[in-house]
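We emphasize that the prediction below concerns an isolated chain of 122 residues; any contacts that depend on oligomerization or on bound cofactors are therefore not represented. The input was used exactly as deposited, without trimming of termini.
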Amino acid sequence: MTDQLLFRNVMRIKTGRLQPFCVAVRAAVDFVEKNAPQLMVRAFIDEAEMRAVSYQLYRNSADVLHHWEMSDAHIQRVSEHCTVERLEVYGNPSDAVVRGLSLFLEDGRGVIMPSLNGFSRF
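Result of the prediction step, given as a token string:
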């Protein structure tokens, strides 16, 4: 087993905000690729449904907290153009990460699915 955490974030893009959403996501991913600790980030978009999905893979909870701290401005810029419909966390996050997710967990948009078994090859 590993301490890795996989996040899946489903976002509804606000009406009339498709273009600025895409610009903000591209800027955020470019920043993360150069500066943040994620092992993998992938963003997908369904323009017809005005919905996007992102996946982020972290080594551990400390990397999640570090990403949130250093990338807050980018996260806020993306959030201006969308609402989170669902946030799924796969793995065993620390108490600090769980506290950071509390808004989503409390209102039913978030779920944590603990690890059962697995491995990674990189």
